[in-house]
Amino acid sequence: MKLSNSPISNALSGIINSTYTAIAGMTFLAMTMVSGSVWAEQSSTQAATAGTVPVGRVVISGTVPDEATKAALLSRLQEVYGTGQVVDQLSVGGVIAPANWTGHVQKLIAPNLKTIHKGQLTVDGNNVAVRGEVDSETTKQTVTGSIANSLNPTYTVKNALRVVASSQSVVDQTLANRVIEFENGSAMLTESGKRILDEMAHALSKMESKKIDIIGHTDDTGTRAHNVSLSMARADSVKVYLVAKGLAPQAITTTGMGPDQPLVSNTTDDGRRRNRRIEFRVSQ
């Protein structure tokens, strides 16, 4: 079984054209995951392409020994990814699986595999290999432990997971708790605000496959209606600036929360200043 996970923008490079093999009675099942989707390939001639794989769906293909094994794997995928999200391209017959292979593979198809990016999980007989990117050492240990706990001592595991910062972490670190400032009572950016956005544009430009929500916040001075309108105008102003710096407008949404989500109390000048902020949320 080969399971790999990469961002949607890397769909073409993320697909691994692999071949099903049965060696000394061992079953090999190949699957490829892209973001929240799993793309599965049995051979280079049957492999799904980036243009035909439905985003957000789980596609599984390969050859398994019998209908019971097929049903068990499909059931597990539906449990993890949701009923209606699994596309069945499995074939049956012509191979012999190792003892308890089905049960071990079911356990390997665990929700925490979705935390691996640009990743690949391979099960070839009793040999398991996992590689890819995770966002923290804790996530790495969780995935590694889950894999180890799902197997018996006859299996060997090769762990090549790498810890890399998540897109949200990169954005948060770039903003570094700084406040993007506007002229008093308006949506016009100050020069210091523009300088921060120049840094943000550079960081966000590396996340072409991501969706970015720009969220405006205010303090509680004045009416709520005015503050909601002002926060939305400021979020829109930030979007206009970032688009002018080369970011794709269709990847950016804006929201105005007004005073409804303060970071701290509005009882001090510093608190009100911190609450007048722009927030960036990154998603697939």
From TrEMBL:
Pfam families linked: BON_like, OmpA
Domain OmpA-like as annotated: residue spans: 171-284
Gene3D superfamilies: 3.40.1520.20, OmpA-like domain
Spans through the membrane: 20-40
CDD domains: OmpA_C-like
SUPFAM superfamilies per the UniProt record, alphabetical: OmpA-like
Full protein name: OOP family OmpA-OmpF porin
Organism: Paucimonas lemoignei
Taxonomic classification: Bacteria, Pseudomonadati, Pseudomonadota, Betaproteobacteria, Burkholderiales
